[in-house]
Write a structure and sequence with these properties.
The chain has about 625 residues and is an all-alpha fold. It is about 75% helix and about 0% strand. The protein contains 27 helices and 2 strands. Strands 1-2 form a two-stranded antiparallel sheet. The protein is globular. About 55% of the residues are buried.
């Protein structure tokens, strides 16, 4: 690595730490300031912070590998997360969530189910889920940033004791970066997280633009067209996927056959099924929820969520597509010739391209940008996870009366504990892909059923929520343990076959078990107190099966009206998904010089933007100013 690149990276790290620590004094006023920034941060800063938090290096490395192997249709793999939930949040969920005016997602649950035993059980299980999810994501970041840094940086720094390798070089790098990020995150809470993430977003956008320009200038149209096929550049697909590689690159077709997505039609159908229910369930109790709750008003919560979609996808996919173009031309022949070609080779395409095919200066900025991507996402989870431990468990059940400084110290300790657990889990993860699939399919599978029902069905109660979430988490944990031990089972045994089922196809099982737990828990126990339901419905005003509550509320408040926006909201969500997809495909087609498809993607983006202006934005602007909750 050239000294110029090293200087750029060091300056970035010092600047980030300096900004984070300098602004940290504002976090000392109490938990509301520490975790939500005192609900005083402007919506566009929170939007930039939210977008920055989603621009993670592990996910970027994963998407680079997928785009390289599968081509343009790989954007549909992102539906596993699902990225649609950003559209559903923008259209209606941000407004529903922000009206609660509380601190965490699990505290929000008490407004839905009450503060009795059933409500507290549901409150506790969602706090546990938030902690488990935070630990899982930290493991995911640990695995990704370690692989990335060990390929990029020239120094080999394993930790060896008595000739035993205790830490590999990638693990050592991951621990160093995680330690530096944890310092400013714990010190400054939400203020430091947002301030540093806005800075990091700017660096990431600059990195994406620079790598796109470099790839566009250094690689010719002929070189790209000699590598990719018509099938690679199309988003249309059939029941199965065969791979589109020819000549000396056919080894990649064999890799496609081993990845578990051969039945591509069934895979996309599963993503669609999961995507709808996971999106309508709302954001998981993590940093995305914290950004919504940190906004100054209901109106600004919607603005922030829409802005996140707008600023995230185009710059991120400029970076991804730029890296893939360089990889197709410079790496594809050598990778295809490798006798040991595997998924691991795809996961290190990103750092390999940067290391060998990016010039001095741009390399330093790009590394700083990807380091920023890691640090911003990691810091978001380190800030959100402890909120559930301290506010929802420790403060509520252990020490309800204490000085604000006491709870902030408890938050510092909890942050360190969650980071340590996440890093420990990361040591046992076999790949970024393994953790990605577990989080998106198994862990989220246990979340979806209960959180889908809580919005739309008045009879669904706290015990239903608790048992729906608990049963889903149990199945997800069993799946994780089976996956981690699949090499230990006898070939051909029942456990061996269970352990080798692709996680995405286990989602319906987890969803069904969770749904069964939710229905049994609901029907075998008493309904939620009607006064609690009336207060929730009057405040949030969701659509769905709420007629008994609406009827009871109408007696007390004759002026109350039903939410009849279901069809309009679903139509906006459909338009929003097309809008979001156009922002992903536009930079991909532009970078591979497919100008007709680039123009189509641009026209779709413009048309859907205009539609959303009239059907969504104008509607948000009509939210009355009386719903400004920042000073409540």
């Amino acid at each position: 690595m050239h000294s110029i690149d090293v200087i750029i990276i060091v300056l970035y790290i010092l600047l980030t730490l300096g900004v984070g620590i300098w602004i940290s004094k504002r976090a000392s006023k109490g938990l509301d300031s520490y975790f939500l920034g005192g609900k005083s941060i402007k919506w566009y800063y929170l939007g930039l912070s939210n977008g920055s938090g989603m621009f993670d290096v592990s996910g970027t490395a994963w998407m680079v590998g997928l785009l390289f192997l599968y081509g343009a249709k790989s954007f549909m793999f992102m539906w596993m997360w699902p990225i649609w939930n950003q559209i559903f949040i923008m259209v209606f969920l941000a407004v529903w969530i922000r009206r609660s005016n509380i601190m965490t997602g699990s505290e929000w649950i008490l407004t839905r189910f009450g503060d009795d035993r059933a409500g507290r059980a549901s409150h506790l299980i969602v706090a546990i889920f938030a902690i488990v999810a935070s630990v899982g994501f930290i493991a995911y970041f640990f695995e990704g940033v370690g692989k990335f840094m060990s390929v990029i940086l020239p120094w080999d720094i394993p930790f060896i004791l008595n000739d035993a390798v205790l830490l590999t070089s990638s693990q050592s790098y991951a621990l160093i970066i995680i330690f530096l990020t944890t310092i400013y995150t714990i010190k400054g809470g939400m203020f430091s997280v947002v301030a540093t993430e806005v800075l990091q977003y700017g660096i990431m956008v600059l990195s994406g633009v620079l790598i796109a320009i470099y790839a566009f200038v250094s690689v010719s149209d002929v070189e790209i067209n000699n590598i990719i096929s018509t099938e690679w550049s199309t988003i249309f697909f059939g029941n199965s996927i065969e791979g589109s590689w020819t000549g000396k690159l056919t080894a990649f077709n064999d890799l496609v056959d081993t990845q578990g997505y051969k039945m591509f039609g069934a895979f996309i159908g599963m993503c669609l099924f999961k995507g709808f229910f996971a999106s309508i369930a709302g954001p998981t109790p993590s940093y995305d929820m914290q950004r919504i709750l940190s906004t100054r008003s209901v109106k600004e919560a919607a603005y922030m969520s829409g802005f996140t979609n707008l600023i995230l996808f185009i710059p991120r996919y400029l970076l991804i597509a730029g890296i893939v173009v360089l990889a197709l031309v410079y790496l594809a022949p050598s990778l295809a010739a490798s006798p040991t070609l595997s998924l691991d080779d795809l996961e290190i395409i990103l750092p390999t391209v940067i290391n060998n095919h990016v010039p001095v200066g741009i390399k330093g900025l790009l590394l700083a940008g990807l380091l920023a991507a890691f640090m911003s996402t990691f810091s978001a989870f380190v800030n959100s996870g402890p909120a559930y431990v301290v506010n929802d468990i420790y403060k509520k059940y252990v020490k309800p009366e204490a000085e604000p400084s006491h709870y902030i110290k408890a938050s510092h300790i909890t942050s360190f504990a969650i980071v340590i657990l996440g890093v420990t889990m990361g040591f046992f993860a076999e790949s970024i892909n393994a953790i990605t699939l577990w989080i998106t399919s198994a862990l989220y599978g246990g979340y979806v059923a209960s959180n889908f029902l809580k919005w739309i069905w008045w009879r669904f109660n706290g015990w239903g929520y608790f048992w729906g979430m608990t049963s889903g988490l149990i199945i997800a944990t069993i799946q994780f343990l089976l996956d981690m031990n699949k090499s230990n089972f006898e070939v051909g045994s029942w456990l061996y076959h269970c352990a080798h089922i692709d996680v995405i196809y286990i989602f319906p099982i987890i969803f069904a078990v969770s749904l069964l737990g939710a229905f049994l828990g609901t029907y075998l126990t008493a309904p939620t107190n009607m006064e609690t339901l009336k207060a929730f419905y009057n405040n949030v005003r969701p659509w769905g099966w709420w007629h008994p509550v609406y009827k009871a509320l109408k007696i007390d408040e004759p002026e109350v009206t039903k939410n009849t926006d279901f069809k309009a909201d679903m139509l906006n969500c459909l338009v929003g998904i097309i809008w979001q997809s156009s922002m992903v495909l536009l930079p991909i087609y532009f970078m591979i010089r497919d100008y007709p498809k680039s123009l189509i993607a641009l026209l779709i983006f413009i048309i859907t933007s205009v539609i959303l202006k009239f059907t969504w934005l104008d509607k948000v602007r009509q939210i009355p100013d009386t719903e400004d909750l920042s000073n409540e």
